[in-house]
Design a protein that fits this description.
heterodimer, A: mainly beta, 4-stranded antiparallel sheet, 49% strand, B: 6-stranded mixed sheet, 5-stranded antiparallel sheet, 11 strands, 0% helix
Chain lengths: 115, 111
């Protein structure tokens, strides 16, 4: 089975610009998560989709971040306008059920650098 | 506040030299504790889920154990391909949407 796909793998943008990250979960996985690791910190939760609905977005840092999930399939995370502190690695994960018995399957991440 | 602390930050072992990684946690109602492996440039790869104190899970050279305050990842006779960062994470009943990661232990196995 295909894994979780994220693109781009790397993105370098200037402060104030907009960037959109995309995640394609494993087919049939209703649960989709966004996490990120900023420099020197732990991987931290951003939000959780169940199908196309936001189940929990308590980890979103501010209103410059907007996540969508079209038709319960792929998801996008837009940062507008980007700030220097947004630099880091953004991971997407998916799971068939929220109980995590089989764990989440993570993508390889998008490394975002804001200069 | 729920949190996870891993130690040591880094560990270098000789091939075949067994050791253990520690994960201490504080959580309001543990729903599950997870171990992940992460290789450079990759996302975390799921290893184990533990649910209750006394539980143990094994996979090849790895064994994970759980108490009420901490978890250990025991590595027996490691090989160079076991080199990676090992991440511990917890999920609380109060916020089942998310898992809280520790900062990880970077494990390096010398041939």
């Amino acid at each position: 089975e295909a894994g979780v796909t994220q693109f781009p793998s790397h993105s370098v943008i200037e402060k104030g610009q907009t960037v959109t990250l995309r995640c394609d979960p494993i087919s049939g996985h209703d649960n989709l998560y966004w996490y990120r690791r900023v420099m020197g910190k732990e991987i931290k939760f951003l939000l959780h989709f169940v199908k196309e609905s936001k189940q929990d977005e308590s980890g979103m840092p501010n209103n410059r971040f907007l996540a969508e999930r079209t038709g319960g399939t792929y998801s996008t995370l837009k940062v507008q306008p980007a700030e220097l502190e947004d630099s880091g690695v953004y991971f997407c994960a998916s799971s068939q059920d929220p109980d995590s018995f089989y764990g989440y399957t993570f993508g390889s991440g998008t490394r975002l650098t804001v200069v | 506040e729920d949190q996870v602390t891993q130690s040591p930050e880094a560990l270098r072992l000789q091939e075949g030299e067994s050791s253990s990684l520690n994960c201490s946690y504080t959580v309001s109602g543990l729903r599950g504790l997870f171990w992940y492996r992460q290789d450079p440039g990759k996302g975390p790869e799921f290893l184990f889920t533990l649910y209750s104190a006394g539980e143990e899970k094994e996979k090849e050279r790895l064994k994970a154990t759980l108490t009420k305050k901490e978890s250990f990842l025991h590595i027996t006779a490691p090989k160079p391909e076991d080199s990676a960062t090992y991440l511990c994470a917890v999920q609380a009943y109060s916020s089942a949407s998310k898992i809280i990661f520790g900062s990880g232990t970077r494990l390096s196995i010398r041939p």
